[in-house]
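Q: I have two molecules that I believe assemble together. Could you output C-alpha cells for the complex as a whole instead of separate predictions?
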Amino acid sequence: MSAGTRDTGAHTYADGGGTFHPPERRIVAGAGIAGERIVTVDACVIGSGAGGAPVAKELAEGGLRVAILEEGDWHESASFTARPRDMMPRLYRDAGQLATVGTPPIVIPLGRAVGGTTLVNSGTCFRTPAHVLARWRAAFGLDDMTPAALEPYFRRVERELNVSQVPEALPGRNALLVRQGARALGLHGDFLFRNAKGCVGSGVCAFGCPTGAKQHVGITYVPRAWAAGATTYTGVRARHLVGNRRRVREVTARTAGGGTLRVRCEHVVIACGALLTPGLLRRNGLGGASGQLGRNLSIHPASAARAVFDEPIDPWDGVPQSYYVDGLAGEGIILEGITGPPDQAAMVTPGSGAVHRERMLAARRTGSFGVMVSDTARGTVRDVGGRPFIRYDLHGDDAARFKRGFEVLAEIYWAAGAREVVVPLAGVPPLRDGDSGPLRRARVRPSQVQAMAFHPLGTARAGADPRAAVVDGALRVHGTENVHVADGSVVPSALGVNPQITIMALATRLAHHLLGAPPPAGEPAPSRIA
Amino acid sequence: MSALQAIAPREASIFACLCDAVVAPQPPLPAVRATDAVRAFDAGLVAAPRLNRLALRAGLLALEVAPLALGFGARLRRLTPARRAAALARLDRCAPVAPLLKALRAMAHLSYYGDLRVLNELGHDPEAIVARAAALRGLEGRW
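A: Yes, here they are, computed for all two components at once.
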C-alpha cells in the first residue's frame, strides 16, 4: 500500500460500495458440537469484539493459524428489525440487564455476538488523547505509548473501519439544534468521526445496523480474518486455560451444544472485555499476583437530558450519535448525541402514568443529548457463579460533573429554542422557559444520578511494574510466557472518550508484537481525524 | 398467552396491569391488551440471566400483594386506576422495593412502546427503515 492521504470526509462516509466479502464464511456453530472436538492452531483468541477481532485478523494475515472463540452468535444484517425492544434480547449480554451494584445502580449494556460490543455501540471513534498517553507513561511506565508510536496502528484501524466524519446531511435535527445552541454559547463542538460506510442515518446503531453501514469488527476484521484462514467458533464459552502458571497450551470451552471444544495453541489472547476477562484469568490462577486483577474499573458513566421543542424534530431520523461538544473536556465532561426510536426513549423518559404518556406523545418534538463523565471513582468486578459481579459507587465529584454538564446542556438547549428540559437527576423538576435555576440550586448526590455506562475499562491494567499491573507493556500477563490480553481491561486509566479504537489500536500493536513484525508501514494519513 | 415461555399466566396478567398503570394509554395510543407488550416482556426474560428472571417474576408477585400491605385494601389488579397509581407512587418511595419497581417500569415502557402500532402512532416506521436497508444491501452487496 502506498502512503498518502485517506479522505475522511463526507464522500468516504456516504459511499456504500466496495464491501469486502471473504471466499468463505469460516464459522463453526458451537450448537453443533455435542461431543469433544480438538483443534490445533497457533493462536487462540477468546472474544471477537474490539480487541479480539483485530488481533485475530492481523495474526491470521501474518501467517498464523487462528481460532476465534465467541460466546455469542453471528447475526446477519438482514435479521435486524430496527426495533430496540426486539433486538436487545438477541444482541445484548443478559438482554441488556447487566448492572452494577452500588449507588446508584448503573446498567452497562454489552454486546454478545460476533463483533462484540462494536455490533451495538454508536460507532464513535476518538484516538487516545495525548494527555492520557502521557499519564500512562508517567504513572504506569508504559514508555513507548506515545502518540507517534501508536500512529501507525491508529491509521491502520481507521482505514480498516473506514473512520470518517458524519456529513452535514445526516446528523439529524436533534444534533443540529445542539450545534446551534453550542455555537450561540461559544462552545466548541463538531460532527463525530465514526466507523461507517454508506450510512443513511437509520437511527438504530445500537440495535444492529440494518444497512450494514456501521463497520463493526464482525463485518470488517472478522471477514478479513476468515479470508486469511482463521475460523470463528460461535456459541462457545472458554472455561479452562490448561498448562502451568507460566505457559498455557490448551483452551477448553463449553459449547452451546453441550460439548467441549479443546483448542491446542502456542499463544492465547484473551479478549472477553473488562467485565469478563478478570474472571477467566482468576479462575485459572493467572494474573492475580499484583492484587490488581478485577480492580480499577472505570466505566465512563453517561446520562442524557431531554428537551422539548415546539416543532417536530423526529429524533430517530439521522445518526443517533453524530455531534459532540468538548468545551468542557478540561473538566472531564464531554457531551455526545444520543437518541433513538420511541421504545428506547420510553425506557429512559422520567415519570409514570399520564406524565410519562404526555412526554411520549411529544416524542417527535423531543431531543436528547448525553453527558459523559471521565470518572474519578473506581469499581471492582469479580466472578460469582460464572457471572460478573460489578461493584461501583459513583463518586461525589462525578455527580457534581453530571450537574455541571447538565447545566451547560440546558443552556445549549435554551439557546436552541427548547421549551422544556428534563434532566435525569432525582428531585430536580423539569426546567421550563429558559430557567435553569432549579438545577443550579440543587445539591446533587450520587444517588440522584440516573446513569448508564458503555465503556468499562481497567480491570487487568497494563503497567511495567508487575507489583502494580496485571499485564506488561506488551499486554502479556505478568508471570506468563504466552498469555496476552487485548480488550478494554488493559486500558490503565479512564480515557474520557469512547474507547473502541484505542482498544483496536492496542490489539493491532499486540498482534505485530506477537508476529515480531514492525509497525504497519505505508498506512495513509487521515485527511482529518479526532 | 399460551406461547409464553418465561412467565406464568398470572404473572402475565400482573405485568399487563402494571403496564397499564405506568403507560396509562389513551387514544391515539392503543390499550395494553391490543399490543404485544406482554409477549415482548416474556421474550426479554427468556434471554435474561436466571437470577434476573427470578427476581423480576418475584417482583411482579410482590407488586400484586404490596397494596394490601400498604393499606389500600385490595391487590394491585383489583384497584381502580387512580388507587393503583397511588400505590405505585408509595412503592416508589419505599427504598427496598424502589429499584425493582424502577426496573419493571422501564421494562413495561420498553415493552409497550416497542409495539409496532404504538411506534407508528408516534411517527416512527421501523418497517420502512428495514425495507430501505434491504434495498441498499441488495444494490451494493453490503453485509
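A: One point stands out. Residues 50-69 of chain B form the longest helix (20 residues).
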